[in-house]
Amino acid sequence: xxxxxxxxxVTPMNEDGSLDHESLEGLIEFHINNQTDVIISVxxxxxxxxxxxxxxxxVIKSTLSFxxxxxxxxxxxxxxxxxxxxxxxxxxxxxxxxxCLLVTPYYNKPTQNGLYEHYKKIADxxxxxxxxxxxxxxxxVDMLPETVHRLSTHPNIVAIKEASGNLDRSKELIEKCAxxxxxxxxxxxxxxxxxxxxxxxxxxxxxxxxxxxxHNMCKLAMEGKAEEANKINSKIDILHDNLFIxxxxxxxxxxxxxxxxxxxxxxxxxxxxxxxxxxxxxxxxHNSDIILKNK
Length: 295
Known about the structure:
By secondary structure, the chain is α/β, with parallel strands linked by helices. It has helices spanning 21-33, 53-67, 82-95, 112-125, 136-139, 145-151, 167-177, 191-197, 211-222, 226-242, 250-258, 278-287; strands at residues 4-8, 38-41, 73-76, 99-103, 130-134, 157-162, 182-185, 201-204. The longest helix is centred in the last third of the chain and has 17 residues, at 226-242.
């Protein structure tokens, strides 16, 4: 259903923090022209935590309209409140999303049984393809493979985005869950490795900047062409590092602004990239053959 290079797309904003739908349309055309396989709308890279419910719905609706069924659209609908996650997932389904991505509940640190019950209730309540999302570095909760396996038999749960970057975890997920669900990497740095192991694609931050390279890299890795995939990866590997030089999506929004694709807008408590990192990130973009426009 979903596979390949799946961009965790940013939410473009004006300098006052208001939504910029015009730039969003341009970004989507940029991705479709560069063979991005799936758009992930209002995930954590899309600043979902600082969008209110109305804005969340507006961005999903605009994304679906601009994509116009040319590629799948998955809506971020996770929350640390189960009832809120159900509401967001229902709304995403009503708007026409092809699936939903649900991050593990953050801050309240549920138990493994709590995680199971959280996801099971959402899947029971809303009939739409759902992707689990484990990113312990951001949420302070780690959904273990045993819990993923318990959830993997639910008909509405179709995949997991695993962003730990841990090789042993990747192998265990494949062993326990690959017969039931697709497994995607959420860690750009280790994406080639994990796809060669058997993952079905990458939900990516780097794909915001180099979508064609990420599409080609994922495709080659899924075909088992390790040498060719790693050759592409070696050219953009510096981006995997430096797009996290400050908290995501600060660096990627700065880079997209320099590329002339979005305006200089981000929401508090995130702030624009610190000047001391600009030269490092600019050099990374130049080394990846990216043409810069805005200063």
